[in-house]
Amino acid sequence: MTAPTYQQPTERGYYGQFGGAFIPEMLYPNVEELRQQYLAIMADPAFQQEYQQLLRDYVGRPTPLFEAKRLSAKYNTRVFLKREDLCHTGAHKVNNTVGQILLARRLGKTRIIAETGAGQHGVATATVCALMGMECIVYMGEVDMERQKPNVYRMRLLGAEVRPASSGSKTLKDATNEAIRDWISNPVDTHYIIGSVVGPHPYPDLVARLQAVISEEMRKQLLEKTGSELPQYVVACVGGGSNAAGAFYHFLEDAEVQLVAVEAAGHGVHSGHSAATSVLGKPGIIHGSRTLLMQDEDGQITEPYSLSAGLDYPGIGPLHAFLADAGRAQFISVTDDDALKAVVECSRLEGIIPALETAHALAVLDRIGAGPDDVVVINLSGRGDKDLETYIQQDLM
Amino acid sequence: MTVYTKAMNRIQQAFQQDKKLLNIYFTAGYPRLNDTVPILKALASAGADVIEIGVPFSDPLADGPVIQQSSSVALQNGMNMRVLFGQLKGVREQVPNTPILLMGYLNPVMQFGVENFCREAAAAGVDGVILPDLPLDDYVAEYQDIFRRHNLRPVFLITPQTAPERIRRIDELTDSFLYLVSGPGTTGGANTQAAGVQEAYFERIEAMNLRNPRLVGFGISDKQSFEKACQHAEGAIIGSALIRALEGADDAPAAAAAFVSSVIK
Questions:
Q1: A188, B161: Cβ pair inside 8 Å?
Q2: Are residues A12 and B137, on separate chains, in Cβ contact within 8 Å?
Q3: Does pTM surpass 0.80?
Q4: Tens digits of per-residue pLDDT, A315-359?
């Protein structure tokens, strides 16, 4: 083993003090099987060939790196958008589900479960299950089912069963609880496709590796377009943190690249209605992982808030907790209102309607200190179609 | 202090009895905040042989809807670690012999401080602790010394998928009992396994001749399922069914006692 890096957790899944696998015994055999096999399966040339082919022919990769000239002019810096919104199903989530469904098949699993917040991961999971002819059950918070209706319909159209999670705040955290309980009840035939870099080891590493294609492509595209593989800034929104993990991954060891993680401040970081975990959280355990966690002084997990269903989560992946703790990434939080302004701005200036989650990343261009000669890459993680109802309700015009 | 010498052996002493043991789980602070000790006393007098006090957590992953609901009511009632240990002060004067275990999740224990938790538990006369999301390796590396210093015994879960060598390791790590999870699922679910599957699992564990006695839990709800579970174990654990019996009861301790009687009489 080489020296510890930001990319690679320890054998027991720790990034610094964060990570691990805090799971009840009922999940141990499943998680252990995955831990023992994921690296070997992913290194198998046959797996890689199938994965790469699906990324190209089905997902539509590589996604473009688009120079956003009008945004650049407005903020007096050089802005590039990594167009993950152009992936099949409309967001980066499918990079992970394509990889995990191939993994699930090799593990001999026949039934797939997933959790979803905004519905993008649920749709991406339902999509690959349809492609592979596998049974698919998606857990989604009741509140999220209401605010992301089109995605609920898409999942059902794709043949998945969407089961409402009605405990707690009825959002992503609760959907994840229900998916974990399903896995406890179905330990032999089921694979749990977690949608973010959260959960017990090896999930954070597995999902980061599957999303790493985003930064792998960025480096090649930047070299072609700017003459250097390295930008000055990479910006991405963080709920659990899968698109940020993918966008940061191949820049983690390049100290000169500033990594900017944008969290949801909701009504304001200290308003009591926020999901800015890096500010409000302290070390604790959620969904099998030790990470930064929003909790009260008794260790009860508190209910987060964000208008965006995909960022409405009281934790962040252990990799991100480590990046925050080590100061490797800068964490900024953006309110609902500022994110909504960024939706309008990106739509009007670049002709791209972003997802509400993604809009948080677009809202920090005047806050990172980028100069005229700097290159800023924003991971445009998803498109805004799923949020149209919210945008209409918020009366953006 | 003689009280503590006695406390050291309470779990093992309970298993010396020539009978199948009934272990009852209930959630602290449910249905009302101050029901904890009255329910504990009622369970013990009615004949519960081992009692698990559930420490409520906001996100209890191994639990089904009934215990989830009781936990969230208890939290709304104001239950927390400090309140619980306050309630348990002096409880051994009222319930001298019945083994008492605390069952909960790791995060509230971590935030309270593992050392503080163990010290307070020992002072209250608690005999053992069940933390389903505490990994074995972490227990050995970080918790075992603290548990031992305070004479607390860990109880670990075993499932039909737990490998034999792991069962042996778990058996070495405690002097209390092994918690046999009856089948796949969270607490309070019905047993949906095909006939014979569960028996084969219990018989397989029985044949391992382990050091510790075994109690079967998950999906045990009444006299019939209790007696069935006891065929291949030293006893069984009931939780969700008791909580259901407390729900809406005017006199929760009386309802708890009546439930115990319905199982063992």
A1: yes
A2: yes
A3: yes
A4: 999 999 999 999 999 999 999 999 999 999 999 999 999 999 999
